[in-house]
Known about the structure:
By secondary structure, the protein is of the alpha+beta class.
Amino acid sequence: xxxxxxxxxxxxxxxxxxxxxxxxxxxxxxxxxxxxxxxxxxxxxxxxxxxxxxxxxxxxxxxxxxxxxxxxxxxxxxxxxxxxxxxxxxxxxxxxxxxxxxxxxxxxxxxxxxxxxxxxxxxxxxxxxxxxxxxxxxxxxxxxxxx
Length: 147
């Protein structure tokens, strides 16, 4: 039998809590569709969601997830916490320039260290400007990635 790993996908989600504020947030989250909350059992209200597979029921505490195709579906809190972790917005803003800069700084630093150890002045004349250029690219790249 073949084994598969879940692709790292960043999703949007909000937890269903039966408060007026959260219900308003949920309505905006699901593209301003009308919310259908069933209060047949007032102690256990449920949210009825139309998904790609038909109607699904979310209990208080369940997470409502926006899928990769813009669809919405409920997820139990224990499954959600085992499957997802909060995504750091700064990490999501990284660009290829940052990755290149990190590699180049590490490579250049190692080369400078080797040059000092071997007293190779010619290598230093090449590597020091490269280190400065890498630093400038890294600073510019971070500003560009945030815009």
